[in-house]
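Quick one: sequence plus zinc ion SMILES, need structure tokens.
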Amino acid sequence: MPSDELWKLWKLHQVDQALLEIRKRAAALDPGKQLHAEIKTLEKGLDESEARKLAAEQKDLELQQKGAEERAAKLEKELYGGKVVNPREVETMQKEIDSLKRQRSQIEERILEIWEALPPAKEQAAKIEVALEKRKKLLAEHQKQVMQDKSQLERDYKEYSEKRPQLAKAVGPALLSRYEAIRANHGGIGMAEIVKERSCGGCGTLLPERVIQQAKDNKVVTCEACHRILILHGAHE
Ligand SMILES: [Zn+2]
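Reply:
Sure thing.
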């Protein structure tokens, strides 16, 4: 059975261990990296989809069409308004009007092609949209869960933190500062129990008989391998 002081230190150690565990779990909370990456890929796929390309091209062609129509109308007005009389000038204008007409019919042809190509392309894009929505929903659910986990961890952390000062105060200052120094140098864990009356529960090292005996005699002993203060549980359990 450990000494009263060692037992009190063990209580403190358990709180410290719990606080450490909570910090680790909080740090390991996943904001949904995988889903974020999948959403990004799908969004890119949608941006680069045939449907988007065709729609953009169509818009562009319609603008070109409008420009050509306006230009042709202007030229025809000038031509038939009787102001232009120079035959060479008339010829040049007529040529431009013809060229604009050819351009317009080419654009019309391409627009018709786009109309045909659009429905299957849109179907393809719709599939991406469905996959995207599904993942966005999953991400929202995941994030909600993470927020819940996070606040639970924060509540637990607060609760343990509040217990700590009282427990630390109960330990003698010499033992406490020794414990704190070990904790600071050994990953936040300053204590370990002797398991099966022969090895260190912290690092698994087989302990010398002398150390076990000292622990039994209520002496403060440490593990030679991991330097933690050892406790041998007995009647307290
Ligand atoms: Zn050890």
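The chain has a mean pLDDT of 94. The helical segments are 4-27, 33-47, 50-80, 87-170, 173-185, 209-216.
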